[in-house]
Design a protein that fits this description.
heterotetramer; A: 352 residues; alpha/beta; Rossmann fold; 2 domains; 7-stranded mixed beta sheet; 5-stranded mixed beta sheet; 12 helices; B: 314 residues; two-stranded antiparallel sheet; 11 helices; 42% helix; globular; binds thiamine diphosphate; binds magnesium ion
Chain lengths: 352, 314, 352, 314
């Protein structure tokens, strides 16, 4: 894996744009489409300039037709293209489930290995500024459930670029999950093309007392929690799974083998979610080795409310994570860190 | 319907939305708003032809529909403010307005969803032998979606007491209809399912009223539905938010100008004597002030509200 | 709860028909529709005679339009009806996910409690006779994941009837999951109307050494496994969760507290499935109390193959379950029971 | 296209399916089969107008399409038997036939899905500047689905080199078109999207061939697509399985009779001299015997195959 070039700092959105641009430049079979990819806002800038550079056959907006356009993407992939289909909200994938799960995930197997479906589906999770019930869901556990799909949810600009290139080059359908708040993140990204290989998690902080696994945006909250915990002498190891399918459970298990404690913080509901899978696998794997403590966190088990007054408690914050971790490490005591300005959650400011 | 009632409704919607646009930069409304400014005539023309007992389903761009159908203004503004006194107790926001006593059955942020809900509601009304009709509002973008086709087919099959209203403002966000549909003939597509279908040009509030009133009368007389009206209109502001967006480059101001010149608010206002018009306007201004004051003064929902209303445990 | 009247033995399909008939007789707001509900085959007989008795306004076939008909069902429910929407395969629900998850599950919450959606969605899981990739999926974990939905998967004719009546009377959307093979089961069912209350699991065999939780059709395989295990002196407690949402985790936890061992056998894939949730919750709940051993079983992590030669190994059998349980109880030893004719799996014979 | 080639194709399909129906009660084929008997003329008429490089997508009822497009008979029968030598190595069965060298890109058990896949394939061909057309087969039932609408809209918008073939046998399982659609005008619905659209009556193999051939020629000449043909036909057997089902009561035999009298297999056969016809038939009979023997003799896939081909790990 290429080491990050620390000098070149760009945003997550720019990293996505660059990855797409480089792959489109390299391979004429890469095409990108979806509602509004060619409009002036260019999907938060992630598709900016591509229309001008690659033309409207390769970069196009579509009718509002998530189902058929997903089916069409599969057809393109069967014909040898490498389509990238973009959705500005993950919630809209609920209109595309039939093609994604009944067709994309299954085509290779049900045709006896004769075909493949090199498709990338980008979708964004919304948060803050009243995204509400229908614009805030993180539904990737659905895709983890189904064999035949890959799922990736990069957190940093570096991984955003490398995972997108990896996804585009893979011969299988890849669900590429973004988070609106992560779009604003900046970080070191090498200009040259590189891939972040699938199925490999990243240890983002080394620690001894507890393992924090943070998925998608919740990786940020875990890193903040790690700093809160450090102030009370608790050393947390933080892991970013990056790829949810294939999932690098070995890295997580190795960490929990060491720390004996696991908090999984998901950017979705916990029931039958990624956190359930990770917790169950870790429990199964370590049950003959050592006692462990597990705690799952995620969206409150309710529909996402629009009002900021309630939305704030719908999501776990870094302080909630720190408090829960503290509780596992020092059972019987309770602690909630004072909010620190430098560790505050970034909120998105509207209109949308 | 009278010129007074039309003006009352048009002016009320326009002014409420202008106030929302004015307040928006203060960040008191922390949720997306999709303004109907410029498009009021469709909702007003349609709703003037309806009774309170009739049912309407809308889109995320439904301030106009909500107000035209008689929705409570205080509850609407409080909802935008995320307050406990809001139409959905703050849990919905601008995109999920509802007012059951006024027959406003809900609006959705996912394009096309309420079309099918309206169809089912109309099926129920018919089965229940109720003397009410359902109106389903959708944008031109929604007619791209598969649910549009499936819903129209079923509604025609069952001859439901239902009126489809397509507010064709020619854009889905920044994408023109001609970049999404090979032919600009939504009304013809609808007709192919076997229903009366028609395009109404020019955002003309009287024409909309007349045609919808005739459809409502026919449905009330027990004649089979559904009806489809493609109502041409134009959005003056950006897709979401309080500003204009002619600078973005996806459309030019000259395209908007004929629609602005044909603005239905002053057009209908001009039909009224100022002695009639001014009290209407004054009453509305007072109502608006009150609604915003109500929203400001209202409390946010208590933290415990996060966990309520997921299920009906009755 | 009414005690089963042991004298009256009927099939699962007849139990479904009877429940629907009784509720339709009792409440004129109950309507039933879906593809083919009014055709001569009457959804394996489960809707037989209803058209004749209640007329075509209340019992009707529909166009092929899973998305809009689900939306229409929601609209009917908003208008005060109690619709039952029937799908002959659960796989087809993938076309209805948007209305189910973005609308049905969320309406009550996002409209501040002003409305409710008393909707029942029946769907069937297929197995054997080459159901293949697209007619065999058990996707209920998707619905467990999302707040606002209820999920039930009854195993016996008794529960089929009682749960359907409970579901129809509930004011919330209920995903009612059937399994084609269970349709052929017979069992005692009282003629009078009764409900099987939601959120309550059933202990179907009492045991000491290990807890087997079998979901949907896999409950049958667990009961058979229990008998295989008895032959080698292992006493298995078997639990049928019946309701997956709300899930009666207390009953499962109490059993594992006693046995110390848990095998969850699911009728779906394990990753982010019901088995992950149950395993994770049990591990979380008992971690401070006692060491436990957990094992999950379910569909092989592949697409369902059509050929019987491979389909047989796609599903865990009672012998596989017994062997896995044995392995937890007597670690280090391996054992696979000889197949017994009286404990064989029923296969469905085609055409379909 | 010659009368010989038409007859060859028609007879081959009919006889293969008759053999499948004969074998079925032995349970050697342990998967559902949806026979095309009675409907062969549509697939044959269409495929006679195509070249091998042209691409076809079908439904679960695609034995006729598969064979007419030149699909390998041995691999097809082995697939029905669930054998490792099958078209999909036994993993697919009758509903998931594929033959890439012959341009048969797959068939699906979920109604409507391949319509959208065909549209995407056609988009790719156009972008790749390939001289090939795509044909998308669907039943009348599939036209109820939202994906039909979305797919036709996009195909028309992009003027794709694509021919939609609706095999209208008037039934979706046991439900007649008139119980699903208010008007029997599928072709008119298609036309509303802005494409050439036409109904072809009477299951007439020559008419199907002529109309499709003209469309293929136009597309090859670079003229814009797509085309839509609603081909009227009739299924003689039950929806799934080898038997008749007139006893079920959802249709009457007298409805089928005109279609049976108009059977295209003897009709075209009668145009051939018996000295021409008999060798064709004999060769097909031999091919069929061989295909079944091949399927019988082939091994089932090894257990390890359960885990292969989930992902392309290349
Ligand atoms: C199913 C779905 N796809 C995409 C979106 C994103 N989106 C929000 S509004 C909109 C445009 C809808 O246009 P139209 O129906 O014409 O309504 P208008 O905004 O013009 O009133 C789109 C694409 C969505 N909300 N739902
Ligand atoms: C999305 C979906 N809904 C329902 C079904 C069940 N089903 C299988 S075949 C069929 C009828 C399809 O009719 P049509 O498209 O006319 O094809 P035909 O069988 O007549 O060739 C139905 C409803 C399905 N397979 N897929
Ligand atoms: Mg519009
Ligand atoms: Mg048909």
């Amino acid at each position: 894996m290429t080491k990050p070039d620390l000098d070149r700092i760009i945003t997550y959105t720019e990293a996505l744009r660059e990855a797409t641009d480089q792959e489109m430049g390299r391979d004429p079979s890469v095409v990108i489409f979806g509602l509004d990819v060619d409009d002036p806002k260019a999907i938060q800038g992630t598709t900016k300039g591509l229309l001008q550079k690659y033309g409207k056959e390769r970069v196009f907006g579509t009718p509002l037709a998530e189902d058929a356009m997903t089916g069409a993407a599969i057809g393109m992939a069967l014909a040898g293209l490498r389509p990238i289909h973009v959705h500005i909200r993950m919630d809209f994938l609920l209109l595309a489930m039939n093609q994604l799960i009944n067709v994309a995930a299954k085509s290779r197997y049900m045709y006896g290995g004769k075909v493949n479906v090199p498709l990338v589906v980008r979708s964004m999770i919304g948060k803050s500024w009243g995204q509400g019930a229908q614009h805030s869901q993180g539904l990737y556990s659905f895709f983890m459930h189904v064999p035949g799909l890959r799922v990736v949810a990069p957190t940093t600009p570096y991984d955003a670029k490398g995972c997108l290139i990896e996804a585009i080059r893979d011969n299988n359908p890849v669900m590429y999950v973004e988070h609106r708040i992560l779009h604003f993140q900046k970080g070191p990204v090498p200009e040259a093309s590189y891939t972040v290989p699938m199925g490999k998690a990243r240890i983002t902080a080394i620690g001894e007392d507890i393992t924090l696994v943070g998925i998608s945006y919740m990786q940020l909250e875990c890193l903040r929690a790690q700093r809160y915990l450090a102030t009370v002498g608790i050393s947390a190891e933080v892991i970013d799974p990056i790829w949810l399918s294939p999932l690098d459970i070995d890295t997580i298990v190795a960490s929990v083998r060491k720390t004996g404690r696991l908090v999984v913080v998901d950017n979705g509901w916990t029931t039958c979610g990624a956190s359930a899978e990770i917790a169950a696998q870790v429990a199964e794997r370590l049950q003959d080795e050592r006692p462990i403590k597990i705690h799952r966190m995620g969206f409150a088990p309710v529909t996402c409310p629009t009002t900021p007054a309630l939305e704030a408690s719908f999501y776990p914050t870094s302080r909630d994570v720190a408090a829960a971790a503290h509780c596992l490490v020092r059972p019987g005591t309770t602690w909630m860190p004072e909010e620190r300005a430098d560790l505050q959650c970034i909120d998105f400011k509207g209109p949308f | 319907m009278t010129n007074e009632s039309l003006y009352q409704s048009l002016y009320r919607i326009r002014r409420v939305e202008e106030e929302i646009a004015k307040v928006y930069p203060t960040d008191k409304i922390k949720s997306p708003v999709h303004l109907s400014i410029g498009q009021e005539a469709v909702a007003v023309g349609v709703c003037e032809a309806l009774e309170t007992r009739d049912i309407a389903f809308g889109t995320y761009r439904s301030h106009a529909l909500y107000l035209a159908k008689g929705g409570d203004m205080k509850q609407m503004i409080a909802e935008l403010y995320g307050k406990d006194t809001g139409a959905a107790r703050g849990k919905g926001g601008s995109m999920h307005l509802i007012d059951l006593p006024k027959g406003i059955m809900g609006t959705s942020a996912v394009v096309g969803t309420t079309i099918a809900n309206a169809v089912g509601y109309a099926y129920a009304l018919k089965y229940q032998r109720k003397d009410a009709v359902v109106v389903s509002f959708m944008g031109d973008g929604a007619t791209d979606e598969g649910v549009f086709h499936e819903s129209l087919n079923f509604a025609a099959l069952k001859a439901l007491p239902l009126i489809f209203i397509c507010e064709n403002n020619q854009y889905a966000i920044h994408t023109h209809q001609k970049l999404r549909q090979a032919q600009a003939n939504i009304w013809e597509r609808a007709r192919a399912y076997g229903m009366v279908s028609e395009r109404i040009e020019h955002n003309d509030v009287f024409k909309v009223y007349e045609r919808v009133k005739a459809a409502v009368d026919a449905l009330r007389a027990g004649q089979p539905g559904p009806y489809f009206f493609e109502c041409m209109t134009y959005r003056w502001k950006e897709h979401v938010g309080p500003n204009e967006d002619y600078n973005l480059g996806y459309r030019v101001r000259s395209e908007a100008e004929p629609w602005m010149q044909d603005d239905q608010v002053p057009r209908i206002g001009a039909l009224l004597d100022s002695s009639v018009r001014q009290p209407i306007e004054a009453a509305i201004e007072a109502e608006i002030r009150e609604a915003f004051a109500f929203a400001e003064a209202s409390p946010f929902p208590a933290q415990s509200e996060l966990y309520t209303a997921v299920y009906d445990e009755a």
